[in-house]
Write a structure and sequence with these properties.
With 200 residues, the protein is mainly alpha-helical. Mean pLDDT is 82; it is low at 189-200. The chain is built from 9 helices and no strands. It folds into 2 domains: 1-100, RNA polymerase sigma factor, region 2, helix turn helix motif (Rna Polymerase Sigma Factor, Chain: A), CATH 1.10.1740; 112-200, Winged helix-like DNA-binding domain superfamily/Winged helix DNA-binding domain (Arc Repressor Mutant, subunit A), CATH 1.10.10.
């Protein structure tokens, strides 16, 4: 059964032309790739385009994947990272600041409803805005490690840098987020120090 196979096994079978294996891999990894692109760009349109490009790339150049360098998921995030950068260079940054993420986007569904209570909603928006305002190399590690739950090793493989670099960037990003959120705290109802908890 295809759902029992690892990503690496599915990719190997998909590269022989097996559409079912590719579909299984796509269904498994499409959501995380979309969320990564969305968190990096702030634009659902960019996220959709990047997701399509990543899987087209996988069909065309999937043989470039080297399991010795990391997992398929990390490889896909690395490819998505490059496509997000290209999209942002094409002036998609305006879209990120003028068209906020749809709150009912099905790929952002979590175990809890952040709109249940006003304070949580305000805090969530403040965190989202703060993450989007981080410089790209800090935003990448926050999105991968904190929002996508990648291990430091997988994040390092996706970004092509050392494990220590991931740790130091994440530490610095958390410090920057806390400062940004503390500055916005007076405008948040019931914020009371939630900024530190949101990013730690």
């Amino acid at each position: 059964m295809l759902t029992d196979q690892t990503d690496e096994q599915l990719l190997a079978v998909a590269l022989t032309g097996d559409e079912d294996a590719f579909t299984a891999l796509y269904r498994r990894r499409q959501g995380p790739v979309y969320r990564f692109a969305l968190h990096m760009s702030g634009s659902p349109q960019v996220a959709e385009e990047v997701t399509q490009e990543v899987f087209l790339f996988l069909l065309q150049r999937g043989r470039d994947f080297d399991p010795a360098r990391g997992a398929v998921g990390a490889y896909l995030f690395g490819v998505a990272r490059n496509y997000v950068r290209r999209a942002m260079e094409k002036n998609y940054s305006e879209a990120a600041t003028t068209s906020p993420v749809e709150e009912d986007d099905p790929f952002l569904v979590t175990d809890f409803d952040p709109l249940e209570d006003m304070a949580r909603s305000q805090t969530s928006k403040a965190v989202w805005k703060a993450v989007l305002s981080l410089p790209e190399h800090y935003r990448e590690v926050v999105v991968l490690c904190d929002l996508q739950d990648l291990s430091y090793a997988d994040a390092a493989a996706a970004l092509g840098c050392a494990l220590g670099t991931i740790r130091s960037r994440l530490h610095r990003a958390h410090e920057m987020l806390v400062k940004k959120l503390q500055r916005s705290a007076p405008t948040l109802v019931g914020f009371a120090g939630d900024a530190a908890r949101c990013v730690s």
